[in-house]
Amino acid sequence: MQINATELKNRLGQYLDAAETAPVIVEKSGRIKSVLISNAMYEKFLAYEDAYWASNAKIAEDDGYLGEKASEALLAGN
Predict the structure, then answer these.
(1) Would you state the pLDDT for residue 65?
(2) What is the C-alpha to C-alpha distance for residues 46 and 38, in angstroms, rounded to an integer?
(3) Helix (H, G, I), strand (E, B) or coil at 63
(4) What HEC string does the chain produce?
């Protein structure tokens, strides 16, 4: 669903409900400005992002980079 910012302002409650099942794309001045999504979808994106960075950190550590604890110990002079 794609709407303009004025439409969002005039019918916010309707689009908050709509965003529970699908993203609502908001245009301003003819350009996409924002996307309204449900909290559940937002939480899912955060979990995906956390998993992505954890995976990258694990790969880096496996490739020989120091992990968090080893870095802290090295900086502390242990």
Answers:
(1) 80
(2) 13
(3) coil
(4) CEEEHHHHHHCHHHHHHHCCCCCEEEEECCEEEEEECCHHHHHHHHHHHHHHHHHHHHHHHHCCCCCHHHHHHHHHCC
Structure-block tokens of residue 21: 């099942």
6-29 pLDDT, tens digit each: 999 999 999 999 999 999 999 999
- Dist CA 53 CA 20 (whole Å): 27
Alpha-carbon distance 32 to 51, whole Å? Answer: 28
The one-letter amino acid code at 69 reads: K
- If you count them, how many residues does the chain have? 78
Q: Kind of pairing, strands 31-36 and 24-28?
A: antiparallel
| Beta-carbon count within 10 A of 57 CB | 13
